Amino acid sequence: MKTISKPIYNLRTLYWPTTLFLLGLPLLALILTPIYFALQIPSWGILISAIVYMFFLNFCITAGYHRYYSHRTFQAKPWLQWVWLIFGAGAFQMSALKWCSDHRRHHKNVDTNDDPYSIAKGSFYAHMGWILLKDSEIYKNKFAADLEKNKRVSWQHRNYYWLAILMSFGVPTLWGWALGDALGGFLIIGVWRQLINWHITFFVNSVCHMWGSQPYSLKHSAKDNFIVALLAVGEGYHNFHHTFEGDYRNGVKWYNWDPTKWAIRSLSLAGQTYKLRRTSKEAILRSRLQADQERLSVRGVNTEALTRVQTQIEGVMSKINELKKDYDLLKTEYRKKAADWEQTRKEKILHLKAELELAKIELRNRLNQWSRYVDIMSAAPTYT
Ligand SMILES: [Zn+2]
Ligand SMILES: [Zn+2]
Q1: Nearest 5°: phi and psi at 350?
Q2: How far apart are CA 338 and CA 354, in angstroms?
Q3: From the candidate CATH numbers 2.40.430, 1.10.8, 3.60.21, 1.10.287, the one assigned to the domain spanning 281-379
Q4: What confidence score (pLDDT) does residue 2 get?
Q5: Measured in angstroms, how far is the CA atom of residue 223 from the centroid of ligand 2?
C-alpha cells in the first residue's frame, strides 16, 4: 500500500480560482450581512425560499449527481436528468462530469493516497482542503468515460460556469426581487444558502468518515451518521453506502431518514424513475454479521460461538429464500387458475405461508441470540 502524502497548502500548490471563491464568499457574506440588516430584516418569504432552495439543490446533488449519475442505481426520464443537471449546477460543486469522476475515484480508492478526499490526509483536507489544491491532470475525468459520451452531461460540462452563476445567485436575486427584496434574495437565498449547501455536502466527506457507526463493514472508514443524514437529505448513512454503492437507498431501513430514497421511490410510483436497484436482504444481513464478528475479533474476543450462530442464521435464511420462491410460484399459478378453483392448491399455499412465518420467527430468534452473544462478548474483557 502506498504511503499517505500529507497535503501542503502554499502559493504553489493552491488552485487560486476555487480558493478565492471558497474563502471569498464567506467574507462577502460577513461584509454584506450587517449592511443588509441595518437596512431591513428578511421576510418569511425570503427565509423559507432559502431553506426550500437549499434542500432542493442538495436533492439534485444527492439523487442526480450522486445516486443517478455516479452510481447508476436507477433509471430516470430525461426531464428529470435536465432538472438535476441545471439545478445541480446551482449547488456550485462543479459539473456532473467532474463531480462523478472524483466521486467514483473516492469509492474505488477510499482511504488511500489516490482517494481525492481521503480522510487519511486529515479532516480539513477531506472536508474542503482538497478543493483548494491543484488536482493532478492524470485523473481528469478518468473515472467518467461513460458520462463524457452523454450528451446532456457534456452540455452541462461545457456550459457549467454561466449555469452555476445563474442558478446559484441569478435566480435567487430575481426571486428576491419578485418578493420585493433583491438584496435579501442575493444574500440569503444566494450567498448564505450556497455556504450552507457546500458545508453540508462537505460533511459527508469529512464527518461521515470520522464519526458514527459501522454496522455493515469495517473495511473502510465510512460511518453512518444520523445528524449528517438529517442535513444532507439522507446521505449520512455512509457506511451502508460505501458497502453497497449500487443501492439507490443510503438509509436502508424503512425508518432511516433518507428523503432522497423516498423521492426516488415516489417518482418511480409515478413512472418517472425505474429499475431501482436494491441489495438483497441476505447480502445486507451477511455483512452485518461479518462486521459484528470482525469488531469482536479486533478486540481479541474468541468468536467461535458467533460462527456457530452465523451458520444457523445462514441456514434459516436460505430456507426462507427457498420457501419464498415456492410460495411466490404457487401464488402466481393460483392467481392464474383462480377461475377453476383448486382446493388442494389453496391448502398448499396456506401451508407454505405458515411454514414461511415459522422460518421468519426462527430467524428472529437466531438474530436475537446473535445480538445477545455480541453484547455479552463486547462486555467481556479482551485478551490483549
Ligand atoms: Zn465517502
Ligand atoms: Zn457514492
Answers
A1: -60, -40
A2: 21
A3: 1.10.287
A4: 63
A5: 13
Domain boundaries, the chain: 16-274, 281-379
Taking the CA of 221 as reference, the closest ligand is 1
- Please name which ligand lies nearest the alpha carbon of 247: 2
Largest CA distance in the chain: 82
**Which ligand is in closest contact with the Cα of 238?**
1
The arithmetic mean of pLDDT across residues 138-156, rounded, is: 91
214-248 pLDDT, tens digit per residue, is 999 999 999 999 999 999 999 999 999 999 999 99
For residue 205, the CA-to-ligand 1 centroid distance in Å is 5
| Residue 226 CB neighbour total at 10 angstroms | 14
Please report which ligand is nearest the Cα atom of 116: 1
263 CA to centre of ligand 2 in angstroms:
17
CA–CA gap between residue 369 and residue 372 (Å, rounded): 5
Q: Which ligand is nearest to the CA of 241?
A: 2
No. of helices (H) and no. of strands (E), the chain: 18, 2
Q: Ligand 1 mean position to 275 CA, how many Å?
A: 24
Distance 200 CA to ligand 2 centre (A): 15
Residue showing cell 410510483? 269
Distance 12 CA to ligand 2 centre (A): 31
Q: How many whole angstroms from 114 Cα to the centroid of ligand 2?
A: 16
User: Could you tell me the pLDDT band of residue 300, with boundaries at 50, 70 and 90?
Assistant: confident
Residues 6+ apart with CB under 8 A from 316: 359, 362, 363, 366
Q: What residues does 213 pair with on adjacent strands?
A: 224
Q: C-alpha distances in angstroms, 83 versus 78, 143, 259, 345?
A: 9, 23, 17, 50
Picking from 249, 274, 276, 245, the residue whose alpha carbon sits closest to that of residue 260 is 249
Averaged pLDDT, 371-384: 66
Q: What is the pLDDT of residues 192-202, one digit of tens each?
A: 999 999 999 99
CA 119 to CA 210: how far, in whole Å?
A: 8
